[in-house]
Design goal:
Oligomer: single chain
Strand content: 25-35%
Number of domains: 2
Largest sheet: 7 strands, mixed
Distance between the termini: 22 Å
Structural class: alpha/beta
CATH superfamily of the largest domain: Medium-chain alcohol dehydrogenases, catalytic domain
Number of helices: 11
Number of strands: 18
CATH class of the largest domain: Alpha Beta
CATH architecture of the largest domain: Alpha-Beta Complex
Length: 367
């Protein structure tokens, strides 16, 4: 039977989000209903709200979530009722050209639920990143559920579902940071902080945090492992490059991670690296942006220019591992949670994130 629960939607572009009734259909053969325990407030949710993803309103927001499998479809084998899971938006298909080439981290046909959630009047909702988790219960494909240690706090474990994994994976998977290397991270919001923590976890010995906020830079150093910080607010691009080179023996970093998604900061990342260094773009640009670089510099500096999609992660491999590392005290998932809020406070939490006041607010649901 269908269920009616409370959830947060973006009904029209740029307008405040609203709390309303959501209808959850019976799961299809390979679908599951998950009772949400916690869901982080992410910049991607604001991008949906503001039309930066698509104009297919209304959206059911939320995607950085952990919860308990409540109901399963008749053909589900991947999870069982009662399993504690983190939701993901890379449920690999195993059949597309990326999967068949042995590159499932690029899966071009990831699974989503076979049915759609709706408003009470029948209006179909587009679930954010195929998840939609600012809701008491949600409907997803079984492959979107990754089982992790049930003792892990949902408010922290759920963050691996998007932003933390994006930054962490940008360093470890895409940037392939090695022991003893140097790394710079431009932009130290939630994703950037995760990239810093990931670089340290991978064994980088010099990790430079770059931002225009002294408060964020202080957190990057004291909580996430940056060895050096640079406030770039009043620096020219050349001055920034010189400061990075001063910290790296005059050469620049092995890996430069851009987590802002702006042409200006991408150019900075391009020039602050060493010859043959790697640039990783994990910040998400908007459709109107263009990038210009001297073609000779692209050739002459060598190295690689990479984009990191979801931290190039494989949820089944990565989520349980990083939850375990957190439980062992080796990865600071707890440091990302600045505030715990109720479902009706999502709009306020978004406003706080826009002001840069928090890394993550997390919506907690009654158990």
């Amino acid at each position: 039977m269908t269920q009616t629960v409370q959830g947060i939607i973006a009904r029209t572009k740029g307008e405040p989000v609203e709390l309303t009734d959501i209808v959850i259909p019976d799961p299809g053969a390979n679908d599951v209903v998950v009772k949400i325990q916690a869901c982080g407030v992410c910049h991607t949710d604001m991008a949906y709200r503001d039309g930066g993803i698509s104009d297919n309103y209304p959206f059911l927001l939320g995607h950085e979530a952990a919860g308990i499998v409540e109901t399963v479809g008749e053909d589900v084998t991947h999870v069982e009722v009662g399993d504690y899971v983190v939701l993901n938006w890379r449920a690999v298909c195993g059949e597309c050209r990326a999967c068949k080439k042995g590159q499932p981290k690029y899966c071009f046909d990831t699974h989503n639920a076979s049915k759609v959630m709706t408003l009470e009047d029948g209006t179909e909702l587009e679930a954010a990143l195929g998840i939609g988790a600012f809701v008491e219960k949600t409907l997803v494909h079984e492959g979107q559920c990754t089982k992790v240690d049930p003792d892990a706090d949902p408010a922290m474990a759920g963050l691996l579902g998007c932003g933390v994994m994006a930054g962490l994976g940008a360093a470890v998977n895409t940037g392939e940071v090695q022991r003893g290397e140097s790394v710079a991270v431009i932009g130290v919001g939630g994703v950037g902080m995760a990239a810093i923590a990931g670089a340290r976890l991978a064994g980088a010995t010099t990790v430079i945090a770059i931002d225009i906020s002294d408060a964020k830079l202080e957190r990057a150093k004291n909580e996430f492992g940056a060895t050096h910080t640079i406030n770039s607010k009043d620096l020219s691009d050349d001055e920034l490059t010189e400061k990075v080179q001063e910290l790296t023996g005059g050469f620049g970093v092995d890996v430069a991670i851009e987590s802002v998604g702006q042409p200006k900061t991408y150019r900075q990342a391009f020039y602050i690296r060493d010859l043959a260094g790697r640039v990783v773009l994990v910040g998400v640009p908007t459709p109107d942006m263009t990038l210009e670089l001297p073609f000779l510099d692209v050739f002459g500096r060598g190295g690689s220019l990479k984009s990191s999609w979801y931290g190039d992660c494989l949820p089944e491999r990565d989520f349980p591992m990083y939850v375990d590392l957190f439980q062992q005290g080796r990865f600071p998932l707890d440091k990302f949670v600045d505030d715990r809020v109720q479902l009706g406070e999502v709009q306020q939490a978004m406003e706080e994130m826009e002001k840069g006041e928090v890394l993550r607010s997390v919506v907690e649901f009654s158990k």
